[in-house]
Amino acid sequence: MPKASLALPLLYTYRRCPYAMRARMALLQASVTFDAHEIVLRDKPPGLLAVSPKATVPVLVLPDGRVIQESLDIMRWAFEGRDQQGWWSRAQTPGNQALVALNDGPFKRELDLYKYPQRAVDATPAFHRDEAAGGLLHALEERLATAPWLGGIAPCAADLAVFPFVRQFRAVDPAWFDGQACRATRQWVQAWLDGDQFHRCMKKMPPGLNSPF
Questions:
Q1: What percent of the chain has pLDDT over 70?
Q2: Residues 42-61: pLDDT tens digits?
Q3: Is 40 helix (H, G, I), strand (E, B) or coil?
Q4: CA dist., res. 123 & res. 133, Å (int)
Q5: 174 and 111 within one domain
Q6: Of 95, 112, 166, 205, which is most buried with the most CB atoms under 10 A?
Q7: Does residue 193 contact residue 167 with C-beta atoms inside 8 Å?
Q8: Whether residues 55 and 132 fall in one domain
């Protein structure tokens, strides 16, 4: 399909990928109507390979032909001109930017080694779990102990950016996570898991086809 023929933005996505998840949640929160193409990891579609040689999701193709290849850039685009409630602006504080950087850097590296220890020689899951928890989860708990959201009294794009990765971390061993002394963080995670926005974001789509959101 020629890029210029798109009637709506087209998001190449993978349902369980946390990067794609935060892109979908931002687009939904910003009330952007878009089509989503659920990829098959072992058989990536030619359309994705044509616009993004790196072929990692999410990738957003706009009707004017522009291609946005990073999840945070997709989030930024989603809220441009649509941020009346301050979702993006509240995420731009130094504290929130530091949390997102911690999430996308050290925490994600430890999370991958915790969840997929076979990817590295001599990786010890418990060690990487504790390293991840001692970094991001400690910082999150300090913030969320004083306010229910990273945006303060209301959530913001930083919440959307971080939550999918903490969700993935918890999913490795929910009993261990739920037994930790991070009550505010556990409540924050559960609030997102129970929320309508998360359930809309996680609707199942037929692989290989465009599905409207």
A1: 98
A2: 899 999 999 998 889 999 99
A3: strand
A4: 16
A5: yes
A6: 166
A7: yes
A8: no
Judge if 190 and 93 occupy the same domain: yes
Q: Of all helices (H) and strands (E), which one includes residue 47? A: helix 46-51
How many domains does one find in the chain? 2
Which CATH number does the domain housing residue 52 bear?
3.40.30.10
Distance CA 99, CA 113 (A): 20
**Are 101 and 188 in the same domain?**
yes
Full residue range of the structural domain in which residue 79 is found: 3-85+207-211
Q: How high is the mean pLDDT of the chain? A: 94
What's the CATH code of the domain at 144?
A: 1.20.1050.10
Q: Which helix (H) or strand (E) holds 60?
A: strand 59-61
Q: Residue 106 carries which DSSP code?
A: I
pTM above 0.85, yes or no: yes
38 belongs to a structural domain: yes
Q: Under 8 Å CB-to-CB from 72, ≥6 apart: which residues?
A: 100, 104, 161
Sequence-separated contacts (24+) of 47-52 with Cβ below 8 Å: 47/1, 47/12, 48/12, 51/3, 52/12
Confidence category of residue 2, pLDDT binned at 50, 70, 90: very low
